[in-house]
Amino acid sequence: MLNSLSIFEQAIRALPIDRPLTRQDLCVDSFLLQQDQGLSVYYSPIGEYINHSAKIVFIGITPGFEQMRIAYEEAADAFHHGATIEETSKIVKYSASFAGPMRRNLTMMLDELELNRLLKIPSTATLFHTDQELLHTTSILRHPVFYRDKNYTGHQPKIDRTPLLQHYAYEHFAAELNQLPHPVILVPFGRVVESTIRTLLHQGRIKKHTVLFGFPHPSGANGHRKRQFEENKDYLLKQLTSYFNI
């Protein structure tokens, strides 16, 4: 299948590499995929690489602007240094996915569940570096979605009431999951992602995997994260031990 990054390669090569990129650089017509009722969907190279050897999948709602910015900066830099389309796709995936405090919160919780021990790695933080072959990262809305120029949070408008968002969540996302090995561990970030996965499972659109239902959204903005984790910890451990047949 043609990597869409090749379609946008020249536009990415034209981006400045001597300063941080801004919305004025990226939220432009040349990267715009679709618009409808206040929603804008922009291309991002973060969603291109699919790891067919993954054992665990981290799933967000949609890349926010910060992840989008990092993805474009990494892609522009990789092209500048002579990387191929395929190499650039992989570099972008692991550099930009859930970058920042979210990644730190995520790996702290997973290490507390001892997923690193079950995977026989030092820490789940290494999934983004030396143990990349075990991890695939994605979002139910693969490309950055903005509602009235702000990061889309999954609440307004709701995915199941919006044909544009339904198309990405129920068609594109489902197709991506079905390219992965079976079974894997799916880690949904928050209730919106959980609900979408439940719908896809109920409709038979995706294969059955071990899903860590009840895993808190690792965003620093989730003030209930620690309480939710403690309340659901035993259930999360039960799901993991079932997957590893412990």
TrEMBL record:
Q: Which SUPFAM superfamilies match?
A: Uracil-DNA glycosylase-like
- Uracil-DNA glycosylase-like domain location, by residue? 49-238
> One Pfam match, by short name?
UDG
Recorded superkingdom: Bacteria
InterPro entries assigned to the protein according to its UniProt record, in alphabetical order: Uracil-DNA_glycosylase-like, Uracil-DNA_glycosylase-like_sf
Q: What is this protein called?
A: Uracil-DNA glycosylase-like domain-containing protein
